[in-house]
Amino acid sequence: MHEFARYAASSTADEIQLVRQNPFALVVSSASAGAPAGTHVPVILPPDREPLDSWQEVTLLGHMARVNPQWQDFAASPRVLLVFTGPDGYVSPHSYGYTPAVPTWNYAAVHITGTVELIEGAAATLEVMESTVHAMESRREPSWSMASSREKFASLVEHVVAFRVQVRTVQSVFKLSQDMPPEVRERVRDDLRETAPAGPALAELMRRYDG
């Protein structure tokens, strides 16, 4: 991932928050032959590391369907790339208030490379599955309790492969019109709030990066 100094994350905390709020990651691996493989799966921050203020010695947790052959690549090539994306939106020159002009795209993304390791055993795999559900339900109101469905979860374990990724490098881009004058940024933010599918979230992220 190419990083731009003008679009740097203001803090590690912003990177961590993006990963926590957008855990549906693209997991990319490469076997010894053929093209890289990619799978979209939930990958969560460690539930026992709260609050988290640094990427140092962080291990992320994920799982995928056993029928997906990608997990078989992990032993041969244990280096993986995790791509987490936040809100994004097309920026139209309509909101600039000047011409000539060109459109652009505002977005936030975090790329993590790490060493992947398969998690062995039904109990440990089930723990990853349940931790993933807890991570997502803890953000909802009302939240759903899995207590009455644990037998159902246990019956699915044999069809799931869980894994952990030890974080090695973290790169990020928070491109949020930082190169535009304040009054233009405000117009862009207001326009995106109304026009982008993730408009409200993107506008709020831009507001946090004002000034």
TrEMBL record:
Pfam families: FMN_bind_2. Transmembrane segments: none annotated. This is PaiB family negative transcriptional regulator. It comes from Tamaricihabitans halophyticus.
